[in-house]
Structure formats: structure tokens, C-alpha cells
Design a protein that fits this description.
Elements lengths: L1 H9 L3 H8 L4 H51 L3 H28 L6 H30 L1 H22 L1
């Protein structure tokens, strides 16, 4: 829940950062969006190999670390190159995380409990989406967007380390 909440805290801050702070054109934003989708797709083709090598738990932690790096790079971004670097980290992280996290959870849920788990997962995921997308901009308003992005990156990394250490 906490990891998903921090992920959703970042999303509403990105458009304002790209336009108001980095002053990126529509072309740069479109290139970044397309590159992100392409990277997520490319990683999804290789996710089975990645999961076999390190397992879904490590894949989840790696994806979380890369998504955390994306927020930190965005917090420090000053030009289009750093924006594209954040896209690279976030695309790889999202590609790994989207599958590894789901599979990791399914590996640890008994077969008879999966329907209940999916229901709770969806409920908590939607709650994290709501609270994160409301709380992120509110906190960013108080402390500033770059500081908030850095904080959310650190929180994402901490959640990834928790997953890696304790599961």
C-alpha cells in the first residue's frame, strides 16, 4: 500500500514540473512518453528471463529501486537530457515492477485465497491511488515540487528495500 501510495504521489507532479520548471516543449514531452511506453514494452518481452534469474521478489525490489531513481532524477532535473534519463530509469523499473510485483504476490498467496487477495489488492490499490494523488500535490505545495519528488523517491527506495529484506 505504501509503495503504491508513493508511486501515485509522483504522477500528478510530473506535468507541472515538465512544463513550469524544465520548460519542455510538447515535442520533448511526447518523445519522453513514447520512449517510456517503448521501454516498458521492451522490458515486458524479457521479464520472464529477468524473473528466472533473480526471482520475482528481487525483481520487485529492483523495479522499485529504478522507479525511485526516476523520482530522484526528476527532482534534480534541469534539462531535457535528465528528463530522458528519468524516462529510462522509470521505464525499465515500471516494466519489471508491473509483472514481478504481481507474480511475487501470487507466489505467496495460497491458491484458495487468490480471489480474496485480488479483491483486497484492488481495493488497497485504488485507495493508494486516491490518497497518493491527493496527498502528493498537497505536500508538494507545502515543501516544493523538487523536494517532494526527492522525498517520494527516498520513500519508494525504502519500500523497495523493505520488500527485498523482509518480503
Amino acid at each position: 500500500f505504501l509503495f503504491n501510495a508513493t508511486n501515485n504521489m509522483v504522477a500528478p507532479l510530473v506535468p507541472g514540473l515538465l512544463v513550469n520548471v524544465l520548460r519542455l516543449s510538447d515535442a520533448w514531452i511526447s518523445i519522453g512518453t513514447a520512449a517510456n511506453s517503448l521501454i516498458v514494452f521492451a522490458v515486458s518481452v524479457y521479464i520472464a528471463r529477468i524473473a528466472r534469474r533473480g526471482g520475482n521478489r528481487r525483481g520487485t525490489a529492483l523495479g522499485a529501486a529504478l522507479v525511485a531513481a526516476q523520482a530522484v532524477v526528476l527532482a534534480l532535473a534541469r534539462d531535457p537530457f535528465s528528463y530522458l534519463l528519468s524516462i529510462l530509469a522509470g521505464g525499465i523499473g515500471s516494466g519489471i515492477l508491473s509483472t514481478a510485483q504481481f507474480n511475487y504476490n501470487l507466489e505467496n498467496v495460497p491458491g484458495t485465497e487468490r480471489a480474496l487477495w485480488i479483491s483486497w489488492n484492488l481495493l488497497l490499490g485504488n485507495t493508494a491511488l486516491l490518497l497518493g494523488s491527493l496527498g502528493g500535490p498537497l505536500l508538494a505545495h507545502w515543501i516544493g515540487v523538487p523536494v517532494a519528488l526527492g522525498l517520494f523517491g527516498v520513500l519508494r527506495l525504502a519500500m523497495g528495500l523493505v520488500i527485498l529484506r523482509w518480503g
